[in-house]
Amino acid sequence: MSIKLIKVIQDNMLTSRLTGKWVWCSSRSPPHTLSSRQCQTVSESPSSGSTGREAEEGNGAPPTQDEIRPFGEIPGPRSLPIIGTLYHYLPVIGQYTFSRLHHTGLLKLKQFGPIVRERLVGDVTLLLLFDPRDIETMYSTEGRYPMRRSHTALEKYRLDRPHMYNTGGLLPTNGQKWWDIRRRAQKVLSRVQSVLTRLPHINKVTRDFNDLIDSVRCPQTGLISNFLDLERRLFLELTMVATVDVRLGCINRSSLNIVNKDAEDLLHAAHASNSCIIHTDNGLQLWRIALKYVEAKEEELRKRVDRRERGVDEDNDRPLSVLEYFILESGLDKKDILGVVCDTLLAGIDTGAFTMSYVLHNLATNPDKQELLAAEARTLLARSGGEVTSRVLSEARYLKAVLKETYRLRPVSIVVVTQNQVSCRLPEYFPDPDKFLPERWLKKENINPFLVLPFGHGPRACIGRRTAEQNLYTAVLQLVGRYNIGWLGRELDCYSNLINEPDASLEFTFLPRAAAGGVQYS
């Protein structure tokens, strides 16, 4: 049965991403076959009127009233009173699992087709979208203030502490309050120049990380077991440098043996809240550490302004850090700045570490692709004296293709409504979908842009995208340029937590590379 969405009334929030009441229409075509859609997707919104897309099949005409069915008739797993569909997720008797939502999503696609309705429990109703055209329609109709239902425990934690926070922050807040924070914060976090000023510091951190690898790897085999712990330390250091201009020193060899309380507390707070957000009501103490750095930076800025007024500021030409931009130019007060800094730490550590885990795994298990990237790294870094510069990043085509292909195969974020993780493994959209082929992003292939959305889309897209990409690109380029990376672990999949997490210990080997030449692309 082919299905399409039509937005007919701007009213209540039905799912975490969709506002309004939705209906669906069906046409006579083979069941559960994505390529046999007979209906176009159309939407209607108060601001734009009716819009439509010509159907790939059929005459593209809007559906008749007889074709339109109520929202409640969208197919999906059977829901019971009170417990909803939770019984489907029980061990032994259940057919689904919360720990592998990408496997669960694929099963639902096969059972019910490319649009699935699921009343999970209580008033929580999910609408699962697998077709990129429907995903595009969803984003095109979400309006100026897209609703988001997530991090509700984090929101409660912050709203219960009005002496520390004005709102729940960027992640759980909705409506005008969310936009008031977002529009001010993105002036800083989305500004190209403020992100690029951190690049020399990011280079220094990644070089220190490479030195740490050299000191802890097995001299004979190059093996480092449980590499994820080191990756978390790297991205904590990168996030702190990029955001608050502070080196914690948690990727020095000595830091592995000496307790660095700030580093350990930040790692624990960020990981605990991302892994088990429901427990953060009583346990999250991230603000205590972040506040110390915000207040220290305020005091430093006060002294710097005073020195400048007296004409004795030796750092007058030093570029402002991201936190300094926040304090001086964003228009946010200290409580809102604290919330944004905490959100950045929550978003930057595990997402960066998990993404790099999958990037390195893909390269280690596809050595021919790794060699192409290593050659590109050597060529570009040789021209820049070993530094990752803005020009290096702009010319690193294969690096970006490697990241894009990793996002396709192992997206870090779980978007429950848009089932990108399932759709990106379907042959309808990607030839050889299970193969790691960065080259598909270098060719002029017709890939729907709504299939791979690692940073989201629209007004609620990741506000820290520029910083996150700069950190990842720099770390991967420096690492692959210096080491030949191997894999000794078992087959790697992911657990579905708040962020997709590697489900096995990361057993990488790192062997120093010899100098070599560059690479050419056709």
Explain this structure to me?
Helices cover 43% and strands 12% of the residues. The strands form five sheets. It has a three-stranded antiparallel beta sheet, with no helix packed on it. With 522 residues, it is of the alpha+beta class. The two termini are 42 Å apart. The protein folds into two domains: 2-143, no CATH class; 156-398 and 459-512, Cytochrome p450, CATH 1.10.630.10. It contains 17 helices and twelve strands. Strand 10 (494-496) and strand 11 form a beta hairpin.
Largest sheet: 3 strands, antiparallel
Order of helices and strands: EEEEEHEEHHHHHEHHHHHHHHHHHEEEE
Q: In angstroms, what is the radius of gyration?
A: 24 Å
Give the proportion of residues in helices: 40-55%
Determine the structural class based on helices, strands and strand pairing.
alpha+beta
Strand content: 5-15%
Mean pLDDT: 78
Task: Report strand order across the widest sheet.
Answer: 1-2-5
Assign the CATH class of the largest domain: Mainly Alpha
Unreliable runs: 1-23, 25-59, 278-284, 516-522
Pfam families: p450
Binding site for heme: 462
Keywords: Heme, Iron, Metal-binding, Monooxygenase, Oxidoreductase
Family: Belongs to the cytochrome P450 family.
Q: In terms of topology, how is this protein built?
A:
Elements: E1 2-13, E2 19-27, E3 42-45, E4 49-52, E5 68-69, H1 101-112, E6 115-121, E7 124-129, H2 132-140, H3 152-159, H4 175-189, H5 192-196, H6 199-216, E8 223-224, H7 227-244, H8 261-275, H9 280-283, H10 286-309, H11 322-329, H12 334-364, H13 367-383, H14 390-395, H15 397-409, H16 420-423, H17 465-482, E9 483-487, E10 494-496, E11 500-502, E12 508-512
Antiparallel strand pairs: 1-2, 2-5, 3-4, 6-7, 8-12, 9-12, 10-11
Biased composition (Polar residues): 29-51
Region (Disordered): 29-73
Cofactor: heme
